Amino acid sequence: MNKTLITIGSLVAAVILIIALVIGQYSSAVAYGAKTEADIKATYANNQNILGQYSTKIGEMAQVPAMQRNDLTKLLESAFSARYGDNGSQATLQFIKEAYPGNLSNKLYENLQAEMASGRTEFQNNQTRLIDQKAKYETNLAYVFKGFWLRTAGYPKINMDDYKVVVSTQARKAFETGVDDGIKLPNAK
């Protein structure tokens, strides 16, 4: 009788251990699927945020030259009118020799270039993060055991094609044709 109880107890313990392992594997897969999909969604939304902020910032910075030009024009008109009257000065050399504050600075263009480079780098880094997250998730979905548990739990619950990486027209064309013509600047000789 003792041997029978020990055998039954051992079998029950083994079944409980197997059930606990199965539940643990399933729970782990569900937690992984939920976290990974939330991360992919968040990274994608952050890509939109980065690109939107970057584009807005560059657009706002680019307005400054027009504002500087308009301010300088007003300053010069006011100065000429006050100094030389409504008809201005007939002495052209006098105009050239005069020094007026508010000349347009190259610093703005340097700042724009730096901001564009910085924004593009941040966007590229976040796009790379999205690529890595999707690749890791798709790999886990293809694993025998983890993939089984993920599919059993209904993953993927998101359409991975909805979370595309943004590429330029030039890059897309190069990959479609297999030819990269390089970058051609409009004013370069």
Describe this entry's structure for a reader.
The structure is a single chain. The chain has five helices and no strands. The chain has 189 residues and is mostly helical. It has one domain. About 3% of the residues have low confidence.
TL;DR?
The protein is mainly α and 189 residues long.
- Terminal CA distance: 98 Å
Amount of beta strand: under 5%
**Overall number of strands:** 0
Q: Label the structural class.
A: mainly alpha
Q: Characterize the overall form.
A: elongated
Overall domain count: 1
Radius of gyration in whole Å, from Cα? Answer: 33 Å
Return residue spans where pLDDT drops below 50 for at least 5 consecutive residues.
90-94
Main sheet: strands, sense, barrel: none
**Number of distinct helices:** 5
Mean pLDDT over the residues: 81
Helix percentage: over 70%
SSE string, helix = H, strand = E? HHHHH
Q: What kind of oligomer do you see? A: single chain
Question: Main traits of this protein?
Answer:
mainly alpha, single chain, 189 residues
Give me the secondary-structure topology.
Elements: H1 2-84, H2 92-97, H3 107-142, H4 144-152, H5 169-177
Helix pairs in contact: 1-3, 1-4
